[in-house]
Design brief:
Hect, E3 ligase catalytic domain fold, 4 domains, four-stranded parallel beta sheet, DNA_bind_recomb_sf, alpha+beta, globular
């Protein structure tokens, strides 16, 4: 039979069931096409990708880009069923992507559904119900998974994440008998196994205890403690120098008093990352053997809370004025380094801008001072970003090799990642600009460009730039850069982590 109709097929598999493997979907779609004299000329595939949103689904994004641009040589788009198109939490989003195809003259056909997607009232109603059911399936599954994770937390089992300095992960079998220690990057292989935390080597435990004593009894700041540890040649659990942030994390994490805490941050259904209030946390006290006494831990929390208490406007300006008199200049970096001082962002929020706070204490910023202070901040921030990114990928089971000379990360022996920081400058007209200097000598597969905010004190967003598409030495970015560049922009590094994540191979049915 002569094939007169040309079609593309879209297949997607997340982590649900073998019945939804891309091979099974393609077989069913091929049977459908052969019976109707349809020739499949293109395949767009997303393997191991959630259908909750379009982020990370390169296959669907590429299909829609081709549709929008008119670069298509087919008339139909064949999909296994409505759920493979997506389990979008807003059914209108699913309809929107299909509408884009329809607007370009392309019909989307769901091969395994019992209705014909012909635009009739019945098809429209059934399709709407199917879309809602697809989203509801994910919501129900999320609720069940969350309840199961909470139950395991309450039983005292660890739910993911690195152990941390001074602690180790221990694998238990289904009867609770220890099976051995899990090294960094290792994961359990059996569904019935569980993970708990145990105190690590005695030298690491002694260092953790020393951090608490220095903070609580000697009144040392996190920065001072970090500097002393680095001078003594001590490294973190990731083999990196200590920073104020890594010391602060040890001083505030309840796992060091044996508490198992979960749900501090929610990212349910990949909609929005939410930092939950303490009353929403799931906690099991006494789940693990404590590394430091509870009394010392809670004393440290009291010191930290008092340090971050709410100041009046007069108190804030008084402290800022004293700092100006003592140092002769002010900058966001200098403010953030001073213990007991509200953060630079707090000044900006309270007084409308950091510049306004400067004016109220009689300081006129000098551009050179700010430039030097920003340089100093960037030198400290870059290793922290690299360390945090490496740790996140290791926690997902990735194998990471880092070049100590260049900080280039090799991920699973498959691709390389370079991280760069982009300083923000403000034009005379108030527009924001960023200049990127790419590591062309390293030829990384992916460059992660971290854009800083207008004050150059915090990360704003990220650009995941593939070397094959953007092999240039320098790049200038504005607040808006068009789809050819902003298509690479992300609010967090979750897409990069998904590329690095290792998933267990499914057993053949």
């Amino acid at each position: 039979m002569n094939c007169t109709v040309r079609a593309a097929q879209y297949v997607r598999m997340s982590t649900e069931h073998q019945q939804y493997s891309t091979e099974n979907q393609a077989d069913r779609i091929r049977d459908y096409a052969e019976r109707r004299g349809i020739a499949i000329v293109r395949t767009y595939a997303d393997e191991g990708k959630s259908g909750l949103n379009i982020g990370g689904r390169e296959g669907l994004q590429r299909l829609l880009d081709d549709v929008r641009s008119g670069r298509v040589d087919f008339e139909l788009i064949l999909v296994y069923d409505v759920s493979r198109w997506g389990r979008f939490q807003d059914a209108d989003e699913s309809a929107y992507y299909e509408f884009l195809c329809k607007q370009a003259g392309l019909k989307v056909v769901y091969c395994a559904e019992q209705f014909d997607n012909d635009g009739s009232p019945v098809a429209t109603i059934v399709k709407g119900v199917k879309r809602a059911m697809a989203g509801e399936y994910s919501r129900e599954l999320s609720t069940k998974v969350f309840a199961g994770q909470c139950r395991l937390i309450e039983l005292g089992f660890r739910q993911g994440g690195a152990a941390g300095f001074g602690l180790r992960r221990v694998l238990l079998d289904q009867s609770g008998a220890p099976k051995g220690e899990l090294r960094r990057g290792e994961q359990k292989s059996l569904q019935t196994d569980r993970v708990v935390l145990r105190p690590g080597p005695t030298d690491e435990v002694a260092i953790v205890e020393g951090i608490y004593r220095a903070f609580v009894e000697q009144g040392q700041s996190e920065a001072t403690i970090a500097r002393r540890l680095n001078e003594e040649g001590v490294r973190t659990d990731l083999g990196r120098p200590w920073t104020r942030g890594t010391v602060h994390q040890i001083l505030t994490n309840e796992k060091y008093i044996g508490s198992n805490v979960y749900n501090r941050v929610s990212f349910k259904l990949k909609q929005r990352r939410v930092r939950n209030p303490p009353e929403a946390w799931v906690r099991r006290s006494g789940a693990f053997e404590a590394v430091v006494p509870a009394e010392m831990f809670f004393t440290a929390q009291g010191i930290i809370r008092e340090r971050s208490r709410r100041f009046t406007d007069a108190e804030m300006l008084d402290r800022l004025g004293q700092l100006y008199q003592a140092r002769g200049f002010l900058s966001a970096i200098l403010i953030d380094e001073v213990e007991g001082m509200p953060s630079s962002s707090a000044f900006g929020q309270r007084f409308g801008s950091l510049m306004r706070a400067y004016q109220l204490v009689g300081f006129t910023p000098d551009r050179d001072y700010r430039y030097l202070e920003t340089n100093r901040f960037l030198r400290r921030l870059h290793p922290e970003v690299v360390q945090r990114t490496e740790a996140a990928m290791l926690a997902l089971g990735a194998q990471i090799e880092r070049d100590p000379a260049t900080d280039l990360l090799w991920v699973n022996g498959e691709f390389s990642v370079s991280l760069i920081l982009a300083r923000c400058t403000v034009t005379h007209g108030g527009a924001l600009r960023w200049k990127l200097r790419l590591d062309t000598g390293l030829c990384p597969d992916i460059t992660v460009a971290v854009r800083l905010d207008a004050a150059n004190t915090a990360e704003l967003d990220y650009y995941l730039l593939p070397w094959m598409d953007l092999a240039v030495e320098q790049m200038r970015l504005g607040e808006r850069n068009g789809t050819h560049l902003d298509g690479y922009r992300v609010d967090d590094l979750a897409p990069l982590y998904r590329l690095a994540e290792r998933a267990p191979v499914r057993r053949a049915a």
